[in-house]
Description:
The structure is a single chain. The protein is of the alpha+beta class. The chain is built from four helices and nine strands, in the order E-H-E-E-H-E-E-H-E-E-H-E-E. The protein folds into two domains: 3-83 and 158-171, 2-Layer Sandwich (Alpha-Beta Plaits), CATH 3.30.70.260; 84-154, ACT-like. Chain A, domain 2 (Alpha-Beta Plaits), CATH 3.30.70. Strands 5, 6, 7, 8 and 9 form a five-stranded antiparallel β-sheet that branches. The chain has a four-stranded antiparallel β-sheet with strand order 2-3-1-4.
Amino acid sequence: MHDRHTLSVLVENRPGVLTRIAGMFARRGYNIHSLAVGPTEDPAVSRLTVVVGAEALQLEQITKQLNKLVNVLKIQELEQGDSVERELLLVKVAAEPATRSQVIELADVFRAKIVDVDHDSITIEAAGNPEKLEAMIELVTPYGIREVVRSGTIALGRGAASITDGSRLRMQRVV
């Protein structure tokens, strides 16, 4: 059985780092379900949020291989109950005049925004945990989905603790 694991990976903000990390996953045959990359509070450091489906032994191998990469500073697994996960979704839904109000009501139920309206479609923007977005997609599917794009999961641990607490990143290379 493959479990879903979310890894927060701090890396040096340098050209080629993402390529090396993606290459490591590809060489070892690990599938990335979601990958989001962005700057942190320190301009020299970027955070990758990687969602992988892996068994415990595979996850251990993934973290060991990531730690071997020179630009990887720190890795932390974010447990589902102990972290806040969010994703952004844009979905273009067919919305004929007869069904337009129903699609708008569904968007309201999910606290989503209508960001574009055309004669026969509506584009909805929604943010939330991946399960919420899957539920929304399921409910608008009968109306006809024209396009879907998702940002990938981003996540932070809950509470005051931080991945950077109590350490100098350049010296900390542990899971």
